[in-house]
Amino acid sequence: MELSELLLNPYLYIIAFLFMLAVIDLTVGVSNDAVNFLSSAVGSKAAKLRTVLIVASVGVFVGAAFSSRMMDIARHGIFTPEYFYFNEVMCIFLAVVISDVFLLDLFNTLGLPTSTTVSMVFELLGAAFIISIFKISSGTMDTSIMELLNTEKALTMIISIFLSVAIAFVFGLVVQWISRTIFTFHYRRNLGSKIGIFGGIAVTAILYFMLIKGLKGSTLVPADVKTFVDANTGMLLLASFLFFTVFMQVLHWLKVNVLKIVVLIGTFSLALAFAGNDLVNFIGVTLAGLSSFQDFVTNGNGMAADQFVMTSLMESAKTPVYYLVGAGAIMVFALCTSKKAKKVLQTSINLSSQKNDENDMFGSSPLARNVVRVTTNMVTAISRKTPTSVKDWVNERFRPLEEREDVAFDLIRASVNLVLAGLLIAVGTSMKLPLSTTYVTFMVGMGSSLADRAWGRESAVYRVTGVVSVIGGWFITAGAAFILASTVATIMYFGGLPAMFIMIAIVAYLLIHSHLRYNKKQKEDREDAKVQVIMNSENPEEVWDALRLHTAETLSHTLTFSAETYKTMFEAFSKDDSRPLKGSLNKIVDEKNLIKKQRRFETRGMQRIDQSLAFERTTWYHLCTNSCQQMLNTLIRIGEPMKEHTENSFSPLSKGYIEEFSPYCRDVFNVLVDINNILSTGDFTTADEVSERAKNLKHALANLRKTQTMRLHKSQGSLRMDFVYLNLIQESHELLSEVRNLLRGGKKLFASVAESNAVITE
């Protein structure tokens, strides 16, 4: 085909669009997924972050070069291309990448867990399925859906993806339990001659699955080398085990920390497995589309796109090395420059941390509570039947360190996490089965943390909720990917090329919109930076400065919310409108949960400041947070009677009561706003004056309460409405009491060091 004809071919621009999305997928995928293989090394502090990134980058780059075999999944792993025409195959591939962008945007917006592997498999399945249905229903093809789709292979991949959840969890639990029983938490004094065997097994297993299995699919290794390795696998494994066992033992005798070496090698292996397994998710469809286009241009001989059969896709992928190397380079660049890496990394570390700090980032669910309760009862029943000597021996092996270590978990668990996750993913890769790297790593970490008894009574329900949320995210992702890809494929199948380019324009708009939305989140990024200072800085003064700002913002947010909610509820009750009341009560519940979360975080921050300062300020901090919680409880007590009253269509608040209380409502609102300004600015020069105003307003409300009580004895109207009005007066009085306590506590909490010894009178 001449160059001029090629440039006029609309499918050329579709291929260009696929490549653009492939680059974006590589960048986003590494930013969100690849940090999972960093968590063990960073959480155990096996090396500096820069060293870990270098090791991981090498692993990613090498893994990309060894990933050629996985590309067959996009070509003929889900559907049978010899039954499809070129235009139909391009419709399938374009539907997959477009659906992927839609899904990433949707799940990122909702904050739900997702998997690029699950998305790719089910998008291919959904698009191919709907196109197959149309082909069969049109009567142009006398075949069944079972022949058009590679059902056996597709079912095997789907089962392997979901089965890997249980397998990874169980293996992580069992292997970590055995490792911990051997080494205990006091592993430094129990290494002895066992560390050589442990290191030898770990490194030999990595070499076997990462190199020997990976050699078969690499285009970089000569055929004679592959033949030699395949014929002498047993001898190579035995030699590797003996060599590395001796080598690791010698390193231990030379005072080298062998576990750190194992962790870094494990980081390399998991990074390599990630690239080898997940690269197909990012560029597999694009390369399959390019191969289809090249075949159509070269061998089409002037045939129309709806007449050229894609038999060539039945052949195994022969991906040029420069595509793999280029993809690896992009992944390494994204890994080293990603701004999201630290946030995702910290999430992964917190979930598997040995520290039982009531981490409730996933919240609590009824299912998790029931699972924990049933499991606890089962463990208790088994414990009663177990001999005391056995229980004592096991408990002694699992007795945690008495000293507090500044790590999320130790090097034993980090080694098991990395080596085991890498092996499981490599097994799937060698069998051409796509596994979700994110969830295999996650489930191995959850299993090993359970074995280490990190799931204490205070955190188990949250950890179980996290696991359930992840698995639920898989099912949501699978269903959404299938439905969305089939819908997009339907539109493009009947709309032809115009519909394809319209869908491309929509995706371009989504990408631009997502970029603009990301820029709006820079404020949140700055907040995250402040949180990092509180939790990671080694300077107590720096921690206190960041903590003081964070706490002031938390209190300010609660005051702003309380003032607006108080005003909204009175206005809604005055208008006999139940909808704003219902909405306000729901928001109060969310605000209470936020305060609870922030209080736990800030309390941990208090533990990291100077001890004398913490002792002095902690009392006032808890006074402030208690006042905030009581303010919200007061708002609930105000809103619930109002909501019940209006929903039952009882007599509305009389005009006289509205006119009487409106000035009080305005004054309470202004007091809350003024106290908010004092705490947010740190300027307490007007604190006494505002506190006095609040005190006088309390006296005025107390007099109004007496007046309303006398009215109740003489009332001939609606007692229900009179009681709700009396409750409003009473709780407004309590709200002022709590906000005065908050001002007093804030004045003490945020006082400068020079002022801290002064006596501050009310």
Describe the structure.
The protein contains 27 helices and no strands. The model is unreliable at 752-762 (pLDDT under 50). It has helices at 3-8, 10-33, 39-43, 49-65, 72-77, 86-110, 116-137, 145-148, 151-183, 194-215, 223-231, 233-253, 258-299, 321-337, 341-351, 366-385, 388-397, 411-430, 437-451, 460-520, 522-536, 540-574, 578-606, 611-647, 655-681, 687-714, 719-749. α25 packs parallel to α27. With 762 residues, the protein is mainly alpha-helical. The chain folds into 2 domains: 3-518, no CATH class; 526-749, Methane Monooxygenase Hydroxylase, Chain G, domain 1 (Up-down Bundle), CATH 1.20.58.
Q: Measure the end-to-end span.
A: 88 Å
* Strand/helix succession: HHHHHHHHHHHHHHHHHHHHHHHHHHH
How large is the count of helical segments? 27
Report the biggest beta sheet as strand number plus sense, adding barrel if it closes. Answer: none
Percent in helix: over 70%
As residue ranges, the low-confidence spans are 752-762
| Mean pLDDT across all amino acids | 80
Q: What is the overall silhouette?
A: globular
- Report the structural category: mainly alpha
The tally of domains stands at 2
Global Rg? 32 Å
User: Strand fraction band?
Assistant: under 5%
Number of strands: 0
Summary of the model, kept short:
With 762 residues, this protein is an all-alpha fold.
Question: Which descriptors would you attach to this protein?
Answer:
Methane Monooxygenase Hydroxylase, Chain G, domain 1, mainly alpha, disordered C terminus, 2 domains
